[in-house]
Specification:
The protein contains five helices and eight strands, in the order αααααββββββββ. It is an alpha+beta fold. A hairpin with a 2-residue loop joins strand 1 (about 145-150) and strand 2 (about 155). Helix 1 packs antiparallel against helix 2 (about 35-75). The longest helix is centred in the N-terminal third of the chain and has 40 residues, at about 35-75. It is flat.
Length: about 220
């Protein structure tokens, strides 16, 4: 059965995954012929990524506190206690700087690991570099399209669900499907100029980790003029 991509989707989950991968890789690397520099690179990447995730959370919370305080001072209610201004967050010193591309770099390392002569599936599971088997739900994912006219354009409406994006194709009277777009945020406005009355057709497929998954949507059509 096909496997899902091994990397988690969210940044928080990736930070947890990367910390585990760094720890397990450090214990296996020497026996597989990897250099100390490889271990250092992974450790630095894991430390920096976790640091950045924590920074985002810290300053997101700080921003929310300041917005709430600003709204209280601006709007009241009258007579309510103002309290004290939110304090400036205290942050730890930054770790060693790493070059851009942590996860492309990790993906290349994972491929080197899997190509290693001493690599075993048990090692892969231990390091978390073998994805789970795809569930029947993933195979059955099928988008539902709704077409509406807005401002003289066709808007392709869809719901995201568990997908990362939607790949859309269209047939604008030629009788053949043409790639239109990969949309990551519903809904998609088709900016193609309408030159004459015609029947436009659309179909789409969900994408996860930059790969198409599931089934094509039913064909949706709309008359444009």
């Amino acid at each position: 059965m096909a496997k899902d991509y091994f990397l988690p989707r969210t940044d928080k989950d990736r930070a947890v995954w990367l910390t585990n991968f760094a720890n397990k890789f450090a214990t296996l690397a020497a026996g597989m012929g990897f250099l100390p520099a490889d271990i250092t690179s992974v450790n630095n990447d894991a430390t920096m990524f976790t640091y950045l995730i924590n920074q985002v959370e810290t300053f997101t919370t700080a921003k929310e506190q300041r917005v709430n305080y600003k709204n209280l001072i601006k709007n009241g209610p009258l007579g309510s206690p103002g309290g004290v201004l939110p304090v400036i967050p205290t942050v730890p010193a930054a770790p060693a700087v790493v070059t851009p591309g942590i996860f492309p770099r990790i993906s290349q390392l994972v491929q080197r690991i899997k190509n290693n002569a001493t690599y075993t599936e048990a090692m892969g599971h231990d390091m978390g570099i073998i994805g789970a088997e795809q569930t029947s739900l993933r195979v059955e994912m099928k988008p539902v399209l709704k077409l509406v006219m807005k401002g003289g354009q066709v808007e392709v409406q869809w719901t995201k669900g568990d997908a990362d994006a939607l790949m859309i194709e269209s047939d604008k009277g030629s009788g053949s499907w043409q790639f239109l777009a990969i949309d990551t945020v519903p809904h998609y406005p088709d900016t193609t100029t309408i030159s004459a009355p015609s029947l436009w057709k659309y179909r789409a497929m969900y994408m996860v980790n930059d790969e198409r998954v599931g089934q094509w949507s039913d064909v949706a059509s709309i008359t444009v003029s």
